[in-house]
Amino acid sequence: MNFAAEYNAPIEYYNRHTGAVETESVYGEGFLRWAYGNPLGRLTVAVAVKRLWFSKWYGWRMDFPRSREKVAPFIQNYGVDIEEFADAVGSYGSFNEFFYRRLKSAARPVDPDPQAVVFPADGRHLGIENVDVADRFYIKGQRFDLEAFVGDPSLAQEFAGGTMVISRLCPVDYHRYHFPVAGEAGPVQVLPGTLRSVSPLALRRHLSILWENRRARTVIQSPTFGKVIVMEVGATCVGGMHSTFTAGSVAKGSEKGYFSFGGSCVTTIYQRGAVQLEPDLLEQAALGREVYAKMGERSGAQISAHEASRRAIQLD
Questions:
Q1: Catalytic residue among 167, 260, 264, 299
Q2: Which of 20, 153, 270, 295 would bridge with 274, disulfide CB 3.0–4.6 Å?
Q3: Which of 172, 146, 165, 173 has the alpha carbon at shortest distance from 290?
Q4: Would you call 280 a catalytic residue per the annotation?
Q5: pTM to 2 decimals?
Q6: Is 132 in the active site?
Q7: C-alpha distances in Å from residue 162, one per residue of 65, 131, 215
Q8: Residue 264 annotated among the catalytic residues of the structure
């Protein structure tokens, strides 16, 4: 497949629940393909769409009481399971209130194994075993700039050769995000940037969107997994990244915050030798494909001594 075909290919992901490769139904797909694949569209992104005011304006519209009219059609069109909702559908005063809705606690059980790490959010997850040597993200040949992404050279050095999971949320997903590990969480550090789409339709052309967009960084000190970075990444039409936790001791699976309207992503980075990702994440990542799974499900576990030795030999 040539680059043009890869850029324009449908977004496929592996669904852990069904065991099948599925095609994503992209919210606003026509606009995204035009915005990132057409010269005039790319100019529009540069001039307006990536600007903070555009997303704030759109998010502001989703706070209007009138926007609640969009809730019922959205639920019907995308098959959202209302049985999971903590509140009645009619209780939402705006589309945004529906968008960052809470769920019943039983709807997202958290893997209880103390040696396991979990996904911080619902969505499509891309697992990268070693961020320094991976050359396939959303299209072959792209490399990740860890230093630019975390915004701190010394911190990036601590995570050289580390393992990363990019958890991408679509507008149809549950939009609260949670801690993938237990430990002591530091304060949120906001890194300024633009707001462009984090859909693969955009990331196939510009992986740098992930470190050029606005980000929120939290460092967690885990007694089991060492230092862990969790970073939220803003995107077009995301009205905001809202932290709801207090710095200090946090439990695995406890709420960290929520996104206002729009798709976005949460990225978790583990230090080298800390975590072994689940086989389906690694198998699908080798194909440039994400894995669909829900918050609280197992994404990996504490690395074994054998695996740590294998990686040390391979990398050194």
A1: 264
A2: 270
A3: 165
A4: no
A5: 0.86
A6: no
A7: 45, 6, 19
A8: yes
